[in-house]
Amino acid sequence: xxxxxxxxxxxxxxxxxxxxxxxxxxxxxxxxxxxxxxxxxxxxxxxxxxxxxxxxxxxxxxxxxxxxxxxxxxxxxxxxxxxxxxxxxxxxxxxxxxxxxxxxxxxxxxxxxxxxxxxxxxxxxxxxxxxxxxxxxxxxxxxxxxxxxxxxxxxxxxxxxxxxxxxxxxxxxxxxxxxxxxxxxxxxxxxxxxxxxxxxxxxxxxxxxxxxxxxxxxxxxxxxxxxxxxxxxxxxxxxxxxxxxxxxxxxxxxxxxxxxxxxxxxxxxxxxxxxxxxxxxxxxxxxxxxxxxxxxxxxxxxxxxxxxxxxxxxxxxxxxxxxxxxxxxxxxxxxxxxxxxxxxxxxxxxxxxxxxxxxxxxxxxxxxxxxxxxxxxxxxxxxxxxxxxxxxxxxxxxxxxxxxxxxxxxxxxxxxxxxxxxxxxxxxxxxxxxxxxxxxxxxxxxxxxxxxxxxxxxxxxxxxxxxxxxxxxxxxxxxxxxxxxxxxxxxxxxxxxxxxxxxxxxxxxxxxxxxxxxxxxxxxxxxxxxxxxxxxxxxxxxxxxxxxxxxxxxxxxxxxxxxxxxxxxxxxxxxxxxxxxxxxxxxxxxxxxxxxxxxxxxxxxxxxxxxxxxxxxxxxxxxxxxxxxxxxxxxxxxxxxxxxxxxxxxxxxxxxxxxxxxxxxxxxxxxx
Length: 672
What we know:
GO terms for molecular function: (3S)-3-hydroxyacyl-CoA dehydrogenase (NAD+) activity; enoyl-CoA hydratase activity; isomerase activity. Keywords: Isomerase, Lipid degradation, Lipid metabolism, Lyase, Multifunctional enzyme, Peroxisome. It is found in: Peroxisome. This protein folds into three domains: about 5-265, 2-enoyl-CoA Hydratase, Chain A, domain 1, CATH 3.90.226.10; about 285-455, Rossmann fold, CATH 3.40.50; about 460-670, N-(1-d-carboxylethyl)-l-norvaline Dehydrogenase, domain 2. The chain is an alpha/beta fold. The protein is globular, with a radius of gyration of 28 Å. The protein is about 45% helix and about 15% strand. Helix 2 packs parallel to helix 3, helix 16 (about 460-480) crosses helix 19 (about 505-520) and helix 17 packs across helix 22 (about 580-595).
């Protein structure tokens, strides 16, 4: 073993005539400009050192590399860019082997592909997540990967964006060797063998994945058919992989780079990067620095609403928590759900039995780390089990909101798919309790947003949907049909429109919550007319088959009496499009919350709408969408609509100030 040196973010070591270059940059060896520059310098030094016969590139810590830090994509790409670094590796005059372990993501995969050989620990996981950010892989990935594994596997990796284990048979041709142990020693041995042999094949010259042109084209055709009519990153990935077969390597790289740069600056990619970063910022709560988070592994569920508690119970037992319930019927219901999961093949019998073993009836004082009260209101004389010393007690929102609670949770349903939690924090709440809840949510793969009480009222999500519902009801009073309003909401970016959402929630519950919301913004009488009319006719929502829509087996259709065409949009809204009217109401509500400090940051609201209400991720949420459209345009719509209902649309002072100063919610106007 030779000397050991540290150059910036590269640890350089000599082993058996090989230069081992270990990337060492917190966090996760992201390929930041300094790391790239340091790696390039270390390669240059190794090329010039006669005693070095080959190079092994590896990563320190828990993984090889997480790829490029997303923040870099929002500015000029610093030199050396990853593509140039990959060319430097591929053209290196001595054999280069990548030793892979842990996570290898994005541009980190590009770095590995540029090496002359790859050794991976069997537990290594590769992912190309760019498509989830509205982008395509760069750094030559779309040209090198198909040369190794063919079009089908390359497209599966790039279009799914999901991690794949190195041991997956599909990746057999991706690696030269797979080892159950630390891959470094194996990589050094392989590099020495290549150096002894004096020859090696660069990835650009590999042709294993190109040997069956007909199969390659079939794979492209099947994917292109599936994406028919769709543009965006998926279509560009298909075009780039096709170029790997049709174009010489150098031209293929140029074609990939052109597509990469177009995607990088697209509105869709900027929006998706915004949401990706916003979800990580949302987890930063002041209490995490003020109090010590404690593990919450024993959960007591008390009350209340059967559907909510069943959802919560399944969420916690699936996460490996021990759960006790105060309602025997709930325990039986959860066991039936688990039995059904086995019958439908979603769970094996062993998994069911393990979950049932963690589920018992009868919560007692001092047992639980977390006691969740889902009774909806305090019940006189009813006993609420106390948590253990240092444990946490919190209220659960079952639909009415969390106004007036000291500490509360709204776990958005269905919990297995929404993956959003709103944590309501009253002034004076114990920091350790908040920190523990936030950590539990993160450990369970949930995105948590913090709602400051009493400013948040019923809650952040309830506040945003109240604005949407009140605007929708006002448009209906003006003569637009529920169907037309819902279609406008879907064009805006919501998966379901406000009237379908109200039906799903239950109209009586919506009415109660909207009464408080309307009072909070000073909305006078008359706003509830369309809602009261439906309730008076017994149309209470989807659960009874009738609301603003009827619900026959074939799917929702406008209710009788609400299916007519209604008035022309121009008669109701003048020059304002219905989707822009709904958008303006949402932006105004968000500005009220920000001004009241009910929410930590503007991006939290976008996370809430995307994660909790299925707002189109490719638009980045309503606030990002307002910046991209122009906050000035939104303000113009507000001023035009204020005459209809000032409490809903009269612009909040924050919006006036932002426009006056040339700002958006996320920086200078036009910079979003």
